[in-house]
Structure formats: C-alpha cells, structure tokens
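**User:** You know discrete backbone vocabularies at least as well as I do. Would you mind producing a protein record, from residues through to fold? Write it directly below this note and I will take it from there.

**Assistant:**
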Amino acid sequence: MEKSSEIGNNLNKSVKINVEKNNGIKERFSYEKLLKSLVMVETPFFESDKIVATVVSQLYDGITTKEIKKIVYECLEDIDGEIANKYLASTQLKVRTSRDTIEAFDLSKIANTLIEETGASQETAFEIATETWKELKKLNVEYLTAPMIREIVNTKLVEYGLEDLRSRYTRLGIPVYNITSLIENGNRDNANMIHNPESIHKHVADEALKQYALLKMLPANLADAHMSGDIHIHDLEFFAGRPLNCMQHDIRTFIKYGLKVDGTGDHTSIAGAPNHMETLMNHTGEIMLAAQQNMSGGQGMSLWNVFVAPFA
C-alpha cells in the first residue's frame, strides 16, 4: 500500500516536470507517451509499470529525453535483451537515409540491402546486420547516416573475409574535404575546364563513374594495370555510359532526310530536310548538341564546306 502511494505521489510530481527534447524544446513529461513506447516494443504490461515507476522516481525538472531513454533501456536490458534492442532501435537510433528522410533504425533493412545488392545469403546477411547493430549500439550519436552504417557493414564484411561482397556493397564518391576544395578552388587537372558550378558538378560525377568502372566494369587485372600506369584507359569516367569517343558526321544524311534529334522522333520534334543555309546551320548545331549527350570526345563533319556550298 505504501509503495502504491509512493508511485502515486511520484506521478503527481511528474505532472509538473518539464522534459527537454533533442531539439531543445521543453514539454511536460507524459506518462502515456512513455507507456506507449514500451507497449510498442511488446514489453510485458506488468514490467512496463515497473519501468515507468523507475523513470518517474528519477525525474527532475529539465531532464532530457536522452536521459529518460537511457533509464528505460537499462531497465529493459535487465528484463529482456531483445526487447531492449528493439526499444533502442525504435526510439533512440534515427537514420538519415539516402532518400533524405529520417527513420527509426531497422536491422532488417541492412540485411535486405545486402541480399539485394550483393547476392548474400539470408543467413550471412542477417549475421552481418546483427554484428553491425552491435557496433552501432556503442555509438553516442544523435543520428546515424546511411554512409556511416554502410561503412560499418563494409568493415564487418572485410572482417568476415567477404571482400567480394564488400566491393559490391561499397559506396562511390569523393570525401567532403575534396568537394569543398573543388568548390573553392576548382579542378586543375584539365586546363580546358573553366571553374564554374557546372564543372564542379561534372567533376564529382566523373569521380564516382571512374570508381564504378574500376570496381564494377573492368576485370581486376585491367583495373590494376590502369591504376599502376601499365596501360591507360582514356576518359575512364565515360567508360560505363559513353564509350564512344570521337566521331565524324556525314552531313549529307541530314541534308537528305532532315533531323531527328533523338534518332527516332519519338521524344523530340522532327525537322525536315533543309532548303536554306540558315536551316542547315541550325541543323548542324543541333546535330552536334544531340550527339554530344552520348559521346565523350570531339566531333567533326567531313567535307563540310563542300556539302554546304550548294546552299550558299
């Protein structure tokens, strides 16, 4: 009876307690919210009451949600480790995903991406995901990020000797420092590139596609040969999507049949055969622009002045 009275007094006191959230905003402590968070992770009802009582007994004005969650987690660990992990994942570990959303951590998502992206067996995927989860629990961070999780997963894959899976699961791109330097100072590798927003965007994309070609498209011996300087693969950044390098156009085709910018006329307007010099000049410009979207090198038009002469 005395214990019930004590809990009741503590609950009455908790009504006046303000809790500081992660964003700095303060709000009244809510017994219902705490109980609901325990129910959501399937905590036995009689244990939930005990945990709430423990939390209430340690409340003080200005306590943070992080402190409350720590108390709850420690209580749950003494009861059931699996429920404790579920509580930690659903209430504390938030993930900033690559889709620009914030979601509760879900171990199964790691396993599912391993299966989908690397072809790992379900058993291996969940084993790696579980080991990753054990590492994540040790981190004292407010938010996890998708790259951070992927780095830890890759570390675990290496530890387990699964290098082939790691190479498929790795993330492509360049470090934050390099991008900052690129924005501030530009890229000096190519004298033909002017430092502007478009060239910055191109360089970042180029680096990712170079890594993709070396990691995914080329056999390891050829990738190593390129990186060691034994061979050189020109315009490696275009190897995956634009293997066509330089090209000579025969302008007679366009003089006779007109211009279909997309090659078929299904997605763009069609221009008929030119009858005037001005129309032909527009055609030649459009030809170059359209072709450049699918190739990596320079373009030319053979005997251009000869075929244009009749329009002069």
In short: The mean pLDDT is 84. The chain has four domains: 3-92, 102-169, 176-238, 247-311. The first helix runs from residue 2 to 14.
